[in-house]
């Protein structure tokens, strides 16, 4: 990336959504740059599951393969953090990086992902992606039939415990700071045979570098070898909201509104992946990036044709 270079498209974020959008744009002969801050959400995980043909692949290998693929089509990739995007008044944007570099872009695709904020429990972060997990669709098969613990979520309550009961018949729900469960959840928890433990969780018991129990604030220890902990998922949507992108309310907080192609309410700006959808898995993010890439290329093509038509019509005849 050279300072003040102008691109057809700048993609902010180099995860599955960003690389997928860039692949489509590169194959469409668009001058494209991917700016990657290098903070993938799934970095702590050793493998990713559920992606057809890539099941079990490490996230690092997946990203490396994607980078090789976009490079084959002339797409640029630079490490850096985009701190500001400013409309330049000419149907384009100035994209500014933390190190002072700037690039111009006719269109923008934001795929900056989200940040998982874990419950404030000692030792949780150190085990994240190992034996402290979040998504059973990502990791449930690998830990099936083991003894599960689940930390009740302050918003969704026992929902995660009910879901993970598909992978194990031995599930314990720790209410932690949740005072009570809704009546419909209580009935389902009972039907699923899930044990409920009241009181706050103070920390984890780790022996020989593996989880063996959950330590309660009152001194009790409940033996568990796998712990599911719902996170507060915070989308990295600051660039979008600073541009004035419309949002919609959800039970987990506001999310930027997009159409079926990822187009935001800001002209010339698309978004995909966890930045606009908290439940997007890698395969969904890649699909969203693909759709955005197709839509952006079409938008640029039609804009250029309309400009050519307008120019031809402005030329006097005779």
Poorly predicted regions = none
CATH superfamily of the largest domain: FAD/NAD(P)-binding domain
Q: Which structural class should the secondary elements be placed in?
A: alpha/beta
Taken as a percent bin, the fraction of beta residues is 25-35%
**CATH domain topology of the largest domain:** FAD/NAD(P)-binding domain
Instruction: Look at the structure and give the mean pLDDT.
Output: 94
The largest sheet, given as strand count, sense and whether it forms a barrel, is: 7 strands, mixed
- Oligomeric status of the shown chains? single chain
Domain module count? 2
Q: Provide the gyration radius in Å.
A: 23 Å
Count of DSSP H/I helices: 8
Helix content: 25-40%
N→C terminal distance: 46 Å
| CATH class (first level) name of the largest domain | Alpha Beta
Could you please describe the fold and organization of this structure?
- The chain is α/β, with parallel strands linked by helices and 318 residues long.
- The chain folds into two domains: 5-116 and 233-313, FAD/NAD(P)-binding domain (3-Layer(bba) Sandwich); 119-230, FAD/NAD(P)-binding domain.
- It has eight helices and 19 strands.
- It has helices at 16-27, 59-71, 124-127, 136-139, 159-164, 183-191, 238-242, 282-313; strands at residues 5-12, 32-36, 76-79, 82-87, 93-97, 102-110, 114-117, 132-133, 148-151, 171-174, 195-197, 201-207, 210-216, 221-223, 226-229, 232-235, 247-248, 255-256, 269-271.
- The strands form five sheets. Strands 1, 2, 3, 4, 5, 6 and 19 form a seven-stranded mixed sheet that branches.
- Strand 10 (171-174), helix 6 and strand 11 form a beta-alpha-beta unit.
